[in-house]
Write the structure tokens for this entry.
Amino acid sequence: MNLKQFAKELNLSISAVSKALRDSHEISEKTKQMVLDKARELNYQVNPFASSLRKQKSKTIAVVIPEIDNNFFALAIKGVEMIAQEKGYHVLIYLTHEDVQKEVSVTKILQNGRVDGVMISVSSQTTDISHLQGLKENGIPLVFFDRVTEKITAPKITTDDYNSGIKATEHLIENGCEKIAFLSVSENLSISNKRLAGYVDTLKRNKINYDDKLIIRCSQNIEENKKILKKLLEKKIKPDGIFASVESLALTTYEVCNELNIKIPDDIKIIGFSNLRTASLLSPSLSTITQPAYEIGREAASILFTLIEKSGYNGIPENTVIKSTLTERKSTRK
Amino acid sequence: MNLKQFAKELNLSISAVSKALRDSHEISEKTKQMVLDKARELNYQVNPFASSLRKQKSKTIAVVIPEIDNNFFALAIKGVEMIAQEKGYHVLIYLTHEDVQKEVSVTKILQNGRVDGVMISVSSQTTDISHLQGLKENGIPLVFFDRVTEKITAPKITTDDYNSGIKATEHLIENGCEKIAFLSVSENLSISNKRLAGYVDTLKRNKINYDDKLIIRCSQNIEENKKILKKLLEKKIKPDGIFASVESLALTTYEVCNELNIKIPDDIKIIGFSNLRTASLLSPSLSTITQPAYEIGREAASILFTLIEKSGYNGIPENTVIKSTLTERKSTRK
């Protein structure tokens, strides 16, 4: 299809369509949007249009996250916001509540040029990633952080999840644990799977039998998780160590141990991924793997702005890894 | 100045200016913005223009908050976002980091019609409120939540701060405290002052002498606050009760007590405003006044959308109060 045919489809003059594509101020936003929509509908050289229309920058980026009442994401947003302020950019926040349908509808909205770039941490339900592929194909700069997907070529900023999985598991083994449960929220998330791989490989290296009944998949629902963990901890032969791969599961384990009168660390030792300020004030204080949440947010935003300014992925590293730290506290003491 | 003179100032035809003011699709966004800016510059009947131009809704609201790594604000945003999603609106988040200069520059940006409405929780430095007055005068619907200012007539959504101050102080007195310190972050914030008034009136009613050396003003800086609290708790005659009017100060008190080996609740009892999930898991568990953060966010957003839809403050209550709850735990036990 050439420009003439395309203009005919729109009932517009060639000149008007051409001006719309050059983002001329003579053309109303409404018409520009109509042209853009039609171009997409007809799959007519979408990218050049998008990029042309996007020359009028929105000075806005979007951050799409599963939840906000979570210290990791709150701190990451703080880092993003710091960089955005420096750049004179606005930050839109979208919460998916771990619902892939919400994630799909948010990305559809973002596809129309409302923002200059998108940072996303995918929901735990996300397996099909065509909505994210669509965003990228529409020429919207895209950066993943923390919960990334390997299926799309785009910059990804994470912590060293596999090594952190090793460190946490080794720490429990060194302190005498032989029957360690691994708690996670999803089998879809690559970060969970990397942490799990670190756990599995460490067990092997220490000649501890792997038992898939100790791999516990929890949900987003605290009450459900309590039931799952009660079942685990009421067993005759229960685990002597817990590796919570997300913060909320470490807290739920504490709550369930309190209810069942299981003593930490005497009866069971616990380590968790966590950005809680109160980790050191808990009863007992919680041993943690702490992700550099603020730095991950800053780095992801910096890379997104490089993408926006360079208008391309060339020369931008696909994987940026910022290390986590293990802090020993009383919950894993011998 | 009449329309003719105004059009001349802009080097535009009367018809073009008139169309711009009617938000006609024949006029480019750039020109409309230029007309709006000039109208403001010349103070030429700004409000009708603003409202006219705003008929083309941005479908975006802004939430301006002092910080995000705070459970209250994270939960409030969750509430805001839930309502915004229902309405098909986008949510911009701006952090002021308790810096009034940042608050001023954010409100200036928001004045130009980027959003259909603004929700704000003011910074602890904010005393002069002319920037917020300016936002309102420019016809941007404005709602305050939690940290409100009495100096502007606009909807305000808070918890029952005065009564919560009474409840917390009474609880400490009932459990034997006679020398209660009140910790806050700012003397500018109306919510701090209401909590303080509840504290002062309760002391009076219980015939306990008011001692202004026990009114402790802290900062945003954790290390500074530790120094301030160490000074307080290393005194020969130290308080036997602490009322932390913000969450982070309750945690700093715990940290300092741990360092100084002061036993909670035997040597000192502590109650704090807090939305921490871990309050019940702390050593010892923390007695709290819990604000309905999520509900406050939802309610503030609902009222903002009513304002946007009705285009006016008539019939909208100025003060909406949602009650906090006191939860007794070990930190105040006799």
Summary: The radius of gyration of chain A is 24 Å.
